[in-house]
Amino acid sequence: MADFASAGVPLHYTEFWAHNDHLIKAGLDPHTAEQMKADYIAQVMTVAFANANVAAFYFWGDVGASFGFKQDHNSNGMPSSSNTPTVVYHRVRELLRKRWWTETEVCPDSDGVIRFNGFFGDYSLRYQSSQGLEFGTIFSHTSGYRGEATLVCMGV
After folding, report:
1. Which of 17, 75, 85, 89 could join 61 via S-S bond, C-beta 3.0 to 4.6 A?
2. CB within 8 A of 143, min separation 6: which ones?
3. What single DSSP character describes residue 142?
4. Which pLDDT tens digit goes with each residue over 52-105?
5. How close are the terminal C-alpha atoms of the chain, in Å?
6. 135-144: which pairs have CB atoms within 8 A and are 24 or more residues apart?
7. How far apart are CA 131 and CA 128, in angstroms?
């Protein structure tokens, strides 16, 4: 990956997916094969996420079925009551929504600056003025950005 990154362009993982049919055909227990598939997907996603040069990661193929989403006649491909999330779904969700999700509460210092540790990406900041008025803003934490924002509340 370092060789590709040396070109100075953002790296994209595209058309990624893993299959375990060959493991099951070889006689491995389906539950164990599914766990191995989830582990492999999590490992590849973690390698990609850990590299600052990776700008995108795209799943491809039979992802919906691997996550446990059924395409029944009324769902139009959207989650429905007939869906049963799989071990792969739970593993990917755990990475995206728990381990790599930045959720924190911070208080600004006397200059209105907040500091936090977070991953690169888009953020939504919600805050309340001393008068109880609620405000919000969005910003991006990009390479070279120090991870701090100054809140300026004029006239509140």
Report:
1. 17
2. 52, 120
3. -
4. 788 889 988 778 888 887 766 555 555 555 678 889 999 999 999 889 888 888
5. 49
6. 143/52
7. 8
